[in-house]
## 1
Amino acid sequence: MGDAVTSPPPDPASAGSAREFIDVLDRLRIWAGRPSLRRLRHLAGRSTTPDGHPADALPPSTVSYILNGRGLPGLPRLAFVEAYVAACLAACDLSPEEIETQIARWQDAWRRIASPGDLESGTQPVKETTPSVHASEPMPARPTRARIVLFGLSGLVAGTLIATVVTLFLWPADKGIPLVRGEDPNRCDSPYVCFYDRGQTGRFRDVTDDYQSLNDSRDTPAMVNPRKDDVVWLRWEDGHSECTMPFATYRLAPRVAEIRISRDYRCPPYTGKHRAILDPAAVVPAPLPPCYVTTPQSRS
């Protein structure tokens, strides 16, 4: 098992023009492991339009429009930049304090590059079917939307850490499972979800509304889910069902029988006894995002 440390995100101070600013925004998403536009929308949450109507803070169409440079030569609105940066950093589990520090850097870079037109009203013409993404008046340096995102995210991160600790102390040490590494012939790559018992017994990829039988993978002791955004529901022979997180390896209690892959990216709260235990010692074969670097754990 290794200690995960973060590599520094792209620095917005390196941008000297609107085009370079957009390029650094794009590199930030790459650094975060290319979270899907759907996941960024969920992480950013909802905001309120000037006329008081609720709306997604990061509509996928707006993010695509911006990152493809279709809003140039103007800058995106500062509100968009704040929400986008917060969501990308949240996808890499940075702390709320770290995220606010990074957002302040992006705010400074935006104000340094913004043209008089950006600061006043963002006069670049856009079609009616195109999201309004050009800069208007600068917003105060207060990432309120980011704080809303971070509040919810901190609970998710805490839950993941608790699950890891529970695994270390409650799962028998002698019930080892094969570590599925990238060079292994039994590797499991997204979009598949794979099951193992001294080797791969089966893999599944279809998102379904109902459970499907595990067939030859029934009663297997391990599952690997390299999908970055989709949770996996498992159901045992006695009817017990449980949700497992994306991009993780799990040890499974006996008699698991069915699987359902869901487009949800987060599991609902669960307080019962887990039968699917997050395995912190296993290796998910999909490449880690650049924001994570695994270093060997020192031994005392």
Note: Confidence is low (pLDDT under 50) at residues 1-5, 121-146, 151-183, 293-300.
## 2
Amino acid sequence: MEYRIINILQTRELKVNFTKSEESILDFIEKNFNEIPKYSVIRLCEEAYASQASVNRVCKKLGFKGFSELKYWIEHDIEKMKNSKNNNINNTFFYIENINFEGVQNIVDILKNNNKILIYGLGGSEITSLYFQRQLLYLGFQAIVVNEEKMIEQFEDFILFILSSSGETLRVKHVGNSFRDKGRVVVSITKFQSSLHEISNSAFTHNISIDKLDTISREQQLHMIIMINELINKLQIG
């Protein structure tokens, strides 16, 4: 999202030069950005210890006719920032509301009885796997991230923890089935009623339609991180 004023104030990337007094005015506007729309030019001059002529020069160097136009665009930036913040909050609540938190306890119970864990994830989930591994290591688990089936075969006394947002990736399903067919334990964080959910001995699931998310949202994996944090918090509590 592109802002008209705040980016200029933060970067000061302008083709024109500012005097020290003008820089001081810019500093004051940046520091009091959210309050500037309430200011009159007289109040700004008084509090910034600046002359009205200096304020007018700053406004014109920024590309505006005067202080009133500058205030208009500052208010416009503020509204954009509020909308962006609200969108992020709404997206996070959407993910939280679509996580089946009641399923986490079964995973906690399994992990308490199995200290050796192989973590498997592909694509965006591969990065999430590294985060999960780090959290488990802090808690004293022997956690290893693997991304090849041949690697998995080397660890006979480990359980397999698969991270897959969709639960339908062919390689994920193949690895899960192969591990389970050998009578070994497969647990997962995945989509409710997905193929991986059905394969797993136990699963912590969500109800988010992954195919309806844009590419960036799928790769960000915010819902998976929330679920991992919930699991780690439960393990810490004991």
Note: The CA atoms of residues 66 and 76 lie 16 Å apart.
## 3
Amino acid sequence: MIVLLGLVVFLYAFASSRNAVRKVSQPNIQFVGDNNLFITYETVSKLLIQNYGDVKNMPKETLDLNVLERALNSNPMIKSAEVYVAVNGTLTAEIEQKRPIARVSTNASYYIDDEGFYMPLSSNYSSRVPLVTGYVEKNNLKNVFTVASKIESDEFLKKNVVEIHQDENKVIYLKLRQCHFLVQLGSVDFLDKKVNNLKAFYQKSLKEKTLNNYSKVNLQFDNQVVCTKT
């Protein structure tokens, strides 16, 4: 029994020793989720090299995976990154990109991601999301994000809204595809009710073929839609 136990311990130590000195292979980079790449394989590979040199053929025991993960997660295009090495020495980096839901186009241009944070534009891919114009501050995106999230989750709004405008008093306006009128949301209070009122107005006016008769549709008032004719 003692001999058998000693043999098991020896084999385990031998395997662990071989595993520790096993060389790391060329990094295997995998993107999780959306197929639209805002950040390229080459960029991820460069981030790995910049922060740890060429990891290929490096002994596994000398590789600090936390350093690599922190380097990848510091990139503003990346939502999360997980780096691990398989028993055979394959280094894998799993990358989840940030997902934009609106694009700010003021004196600065950038995306707002699905968590309400800043995301830079990508030279590799341009996302078709509503534009955000007017008075928008990068460190104060709460109201615009609330509206953009509603648009993202609502089939009618996602199909029809092309622009979110915020004026200097934080009053929100919407522009709809193929419509001449401006939708005045006002604040983000009672947003669901305002959207329901907009849908009811839109469907009624579409049926009556009167959508082009208005220059402004005001949803700020409770339980009513106030329209300004052209």
Note: DSSP finds six helices and twelve strands in the chain.
## 4
Amino acid sequence: MGQISENPPQQRPRTLADQVHETLCEMLLSGQLKPRDRISLRDLAERLDVSMMPVREAVSRLAASGALLVEPKRAVQVPLISAAEFEDLTEMRMLTEGQAARLAAERATPEQIEEILALAARFEDLLDSAYGTAEPVAANKDLHFALYRAAGSPVLMDVIRMLWLKAGPIINYDIGVNSLPLEEEMTRSRTHHSRSHHRQLCEALEARDAEAAALAVTEDIRVASELIRARAEEELEDSRRRLLP
């Protein structure tokens, strides 16, 4: 039988392709890219100041995981997913992220909890000042990932990150990147469900209440998924109306 080494494996040097891959991942995770967004490989190479070869390699890795869709003429697109795929993604996120929140409540250091509380406050500030932009989407990602790092499980973190590569662009439809009338935008900002769920999470972390932390995160994901489905149905109905004579 094989033996388990007590020494961590040595990390290989990061290549240009690794750096491009990390940049693309961050764009997906933080909602800088939305479903149906199309990217030219040449434009991406110019933006990152690299040749086409590392861009192709990085894109191939993300396409293999389903996070990007390779198109003809040297372009990629953020794919749409079906209702069944979205439901499956939501269920897996609730399972994994709920467990990460549970572990974080038990394992997080005081410094990590302080960081999470600060990120939650920053998210609320951005809901007030920048609702309808990519900023609160990115702030939401920063908060959640600080929580999941505090769980102290690299394997669980890798699984969550893989799921978020598909979820990140879709979260735009919850936090409101689409433009809205100013009055409706302010109302959605003030009453956004993530405010209460994040506050419940912070209280659970301070109390070291693992089950309450897990519930706050899973409810945040569940309610967001319902709003995203409703938004998708609205867009589909609008498209049908535009096609009718």
Note: The chain has ten helices and three strands.
